[in-house]
Design goal:
The complex is a heterodimer of chains A (113) and B (115). Chain A contains no helices and eleven strands. With 113 residues, chain A is mainly β. Chain B has strands at 3-5, 10-14, 19-21, 24-26, 33-39, 46-52, 60-61, 64-69, 74-79, 88-95, 104-105, 109-114. With 115 residues, chain B is an all-beta fold. Chain B contains no helices and twelve strands. The chains are: A mainly beta (113), B mainly beta (115). The interface between A and B is medium-sized, with 27 and 28 residues.
Chain lengths: 113, 115
């Protein structure tokens, strides 16, 4: 089945220790998104790619970086995680078009100790 | 600016009853898409139903239907015959030509189904 895969599902990292979350898709969608979601809140868009074009949200901290080496894969790098970065990180994909929804991966729950 | 409002932080419904989750939106775009997602406690966002701004009929998907009132800018989700597995967070989202590839999400409604 075509899907969005996130690895790992659970990640524990130490304060200040860089961490990378990965996302892959078999849907061949040209748009990929990274969201941060804290408990009982709506997902917050960090950035998205339209093909290779990177779109950063204005309020995304510099501590968060992303790479998309090809259509299928996208990575979220947190250079120096703080306690406030503990959250669920959701990857999603979509095609270009108003009437096309997003398909989400299962998420990676990040704990910072 | 695009905006989605969900005014019900939490809702309770008896099993097998119907429930309506409210969503209002604000946009100046004539063409847009409206989406509902379910997020169980496991965290995965599950797409439920879609309504296009030019659709003449309300969208339906199994037990889910969308009560779309364009003039009022509302797109309420109706879940019929609630099941215990329907307990989850529900998010309304919108996509329009001026949002680019972005989706705007409401703050969500937590639904609890009571046996």
């Amino acid at each position: 089945d075509a899907m969005v895969i996130q690895n790992p599902r659970y990640q524990v990292t130490q304060f200040g220790k860089p961490v990378t979350l990965s996302c892959s898709q078999t849907l061949n969608h040209n748009v990929m998104y990274w969201y941060q979601q804290k408990s009982s809140q709506a997902p917050k868009l960090l950035f998205h790619y339209y093909d290779k074009d990177f779109n950063n949200e204005a309020d995304t901290p510099d501590n968060f970086q992303s790479r998309r080496p090809n259509t299928s894969f996208c990575f979220l790098d947190i250079r120096s995680p703080g306690l406030g970065d503990a959250a669920m990180y959701l990857c999603a994909t979509s095609r270009q078009g108003l009437h096309v929804g997003q398909y989400f991966g299962p998420g990676t729950r990040l704990t910072v100790t | 600016a695009q905006k989605i409002t969900q005014t019900q932080p939490g809702m309770f419904v008896q099993e097998k009853e119907a429930v309506t989750l409210d969503c209002t939106y604000d946009t100046s775009d004539p063409s847009y898409g409206l989406f509902w997602y379910k997020q169980p406690s496991s965290g995965e966002m599950i797409f439920l139903i879609y309504q296009g701004s030019y659709d003449q009929q309300n969208a339906t998907e199994g037990r889910y239907s969308l009560n779309f009132q364009k003039a009022r800018k509302s797109a309420n989700l109706v879940i019929s015959a609630s099941q215990l597995g329907d307990s989850a967070m529900y998010f309304c989202a919108m996509r329009g030509p001026n949002t680019g590839n972005q989706f705007y999400f409401g703050t969500g409604t937590s639904l609890t189904v009571i046996p």
